[in-house]
């Protein structure tokens, strides 16, 4: 397609200049900036209402761009993608990453591009192929339209991106219509809206998405307007108009027509949905928090992937030290020769090769917060001795100094190794072990989970993955972070769930999470069933000693149910909630084995 010429001939020039001013060059390597999960969640919550309306307007996108390989994105005013949906297979892996939730498309990081440039210029824009400043983005075409709040501030942009060859001008139109739909919903659904005034040049356009909409309080106070209505605002004498216009009657007004209607209670979604909440702490977290309030050190033990790090992060967020730092140190990853300097800090000139100004070290960095020493079993004995002194004296003396400095931190240590055994073998100091083991929490391996705990975990993981899934992010609506995530039966079928339960999960939650992530993509918006569960390595299930993999577990379930149904495939299909085709496919695969 021919390159689209932006209406303003200097727009691209300005944007390219800004890109250079940001220190970018055309062949700069793209350092994809991506928000960390908690920050992303926080931003989604700030835009929860907007994301809900965007979700409700998706049928418009689906209808207008049906069958096109493109993605619809919403980026906030800082250029960070908070929502993405559409063709999951569009683009290279790198582009998929860049178009995923949390990625930044501000001009500062990405140079000229539709999202960043529409934000800088505050106007809609289409940037195609080589119009992008960075060569890395030459393969794509993007069209973006700003979204404004009812008071006219820039909230973000709606963008449609596709491979360059697939981009067409309808995409800008679709982005514009989506932006208008969202803006209109934001205007109409404001708290206290009583009157809605529609304005248009002629009667036929009055209730089109591009007509003017003004929201008024009962006493006539202006609450907000969409962008078309803002052109009318100066001409309007609202109090007089309200007394003259009759509800539901089409009335000539200036150069156009007006229609006044009352916001009915049922159509009003003005009262905001309850703010999304973080999941409430589970019992062992409550106990841990009580102990932390008394500064008792915690020792978290568990196999790899059982969620030690995850637990510490949740405890930090829920603790009295949430405003303080969480300093997480993997003791096994610290270079042995610098380990003590990194942990306890050093003053300038303490050793050759050190920084001139010295370093505070992780222990001091955790002052008034939490120091999480992961893999504490990997600390050499000398560092163990020093750490013990810090814990006893509540002071730290940096290398090269003689002045002890007071420190106040909550210690949480973790290890996947059995520290008690290490003590017996002389590899870990017994006195340090007792000191850090104020309270020991052992996270069970997944194979030992009770049924209901496994179900709850799968629900949580699926609901989290769906919110952040760069591919099927269509379910993102900001309101999905609920206290108890609901596992929609449409998401995972019972047989698949039973099959997951029967596996022994040597990689624990990490492995389960990865598998569910793949299954969600393979299911592509449909319910996850056996066919979407990827092959997993056979492994010795410590609980049973059996060797088994997921597919064969599912097949066993099918065979057993078929036997119970005397070979009646329809009955077995009904019982397992599977299609008959799936059962036949598995039977055929078994026969060919
Ligand atoms: N309770 C949970 N709910 C949701 N996700 C969890 C939970 N526990 C762990 N996870 C997820 O599982 C993965 C592994 O968890 P984590 O890194 O905390 O394990 P770990 O025990 O610290 O592993 P390792 O010992 O290998 O460092 C992470 O992606 C984490 O977000």
TrEMBL record:
Disordered: annotated segments: 261-281
PROSITE patterns: SIGMA54_INTERACT_1, SIGMA54_INTERACT_4
InterPro entries hit by this protein: AAA+_ATPase, AAA_lid_NorR, GAF, GAF-like_dom_sf, Homeodomain-like_sf, HTH_Fis, P-loop_NTPase, Sigma_54_int
Highest taxon of source: Bacteria
Keywords, comma-separated and alphabetical: ATP-binding, DNA-binding, Nucleotide-binding, Transcription, Transcription regulation
Keyword Cytoplasm listed: no
Biased composition (Low complexity): 261-278
Sigma-54 factor interaction domain location: 296-521
Name by which UniProt lists this protein: Sigma-54-dependent Fis family transcriptional regulator
Record lineage: Bacteria, Pseudomonadati, Pseudomonadota, Gammaproteobacteria, Aeromonadales
């Amino acid at each position: 397609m021919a390159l689209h010429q932006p209406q303003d001939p200097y727009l691209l020039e300005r944007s390219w200049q800004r890109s250079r001013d940001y220190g970018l060059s055309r062949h700069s390597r793209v350092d994809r900036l991506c928000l960390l999960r908690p920050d992303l969640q926080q931003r989604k919550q700030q835009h929860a209402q907007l994301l809900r309306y965007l979700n409700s307007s998706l049928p418009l996108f689906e209808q207008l761009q049906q069958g096109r390989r493109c993605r619809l994105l919403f980026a906030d005013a800082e250029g960070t993608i908070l929502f993405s949906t559409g063709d999951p297979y569009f683009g290279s892996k790198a582009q998929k990453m860049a178009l995923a939730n949390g990625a930044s498309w501000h001009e500062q990081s990405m140079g000229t591009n539709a999202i960043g440039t529409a934000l800088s210029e505050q106007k809609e824009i289409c940037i195609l192929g080589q119009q992008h400043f960075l060569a890395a983005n030459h393969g794509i075409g993007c069209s973006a339209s700003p979204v404004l709040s009812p008071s006219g501030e820039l909230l973000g942009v709606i963008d449609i991106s596709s491979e360059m060859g697939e981009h067409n001008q309808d995409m800008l139109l679709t982005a514009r219509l989506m932006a208008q739909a969202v803006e209109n919903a934001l205007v109409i659904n404001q708290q206290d809206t009583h009157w809605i005034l529609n304005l248009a040049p002629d009667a036929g356009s009055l209730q089109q998405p591009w007509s003017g909409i003004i929201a008024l309080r009962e006493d006539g106070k202006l609450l907000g307007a969409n962008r078309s209505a803002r052109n009318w605002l100066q001409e309007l004498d609202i109090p007089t108009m309200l007394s003259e216009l009759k509800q539901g009657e089409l009335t000539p007004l200036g150069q156009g027509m007006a229609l006044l209607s009352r916001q009915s209670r049922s159509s009003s979604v003005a009262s905001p949905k309850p703010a999304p909440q973080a999941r409430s702490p589970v019992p062992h977290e409550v106990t841990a928090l009580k102990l932390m309030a008394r500064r008792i050190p915690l020792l978290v033990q568990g196999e790899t992937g059982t969620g030690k790090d995850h637990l510490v992060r949740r405890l930090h967020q829920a603790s009295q030290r949430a405003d303080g730092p969480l300093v997480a140190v993997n003791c096994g990853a610290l270079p042995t020769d610098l380990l003590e300097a990194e942990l306890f800090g050093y003053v300038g000139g303490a050793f050759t090769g050190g920084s001139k100004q010295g370093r505070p070290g992780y222990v001091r960095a955790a002052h008034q917060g939490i120091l999480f020493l992961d893999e504490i079993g990997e600390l050499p004995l000398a560092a163990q001795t020093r750490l013990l002194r810090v814990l006893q004296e509540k002071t730290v003396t940096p290398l090269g100094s003689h002045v002890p400095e007071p420190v106040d931190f909550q210690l949480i240590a973790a290890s996947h190794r059995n520290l008690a055994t290490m003590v017996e073998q002389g590899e870990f100091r017994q006195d340090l072990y007792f000191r850090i083991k104020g309270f020991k929490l052992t996270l069970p391996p997944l194979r030992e989970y009770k049924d209901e705990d496994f179900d709850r975990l799968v629900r949580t993981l699926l609901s989290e993955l769906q919110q952040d899934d760069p591919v099927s992010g269509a379910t993102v609506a900001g309101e999905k972070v609920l206290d108890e995530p609901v596992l929609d039966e449409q998401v995972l079928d019972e047989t698949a769930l039973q099959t997951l339960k029967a596996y022994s999960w040597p990689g624990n939650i990490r492995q389960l999470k990865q598998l569910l992530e793949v299954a969600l993509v393979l299911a592509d918006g449909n319910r996850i069933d056996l066919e979407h569960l990827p092959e997993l390595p056979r492994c010795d299930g410590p609980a049973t000693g059996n060797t088994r993999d997921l597919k064969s577990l599912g097949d066993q379930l099918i065979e057993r149910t078929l036997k119970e149904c005397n070979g009646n495939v329809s009955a077995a299909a009904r019982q397992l909630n599977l299609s008959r085709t799936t059962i036949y496919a598995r039977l055929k695969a078994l026969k060919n084995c």
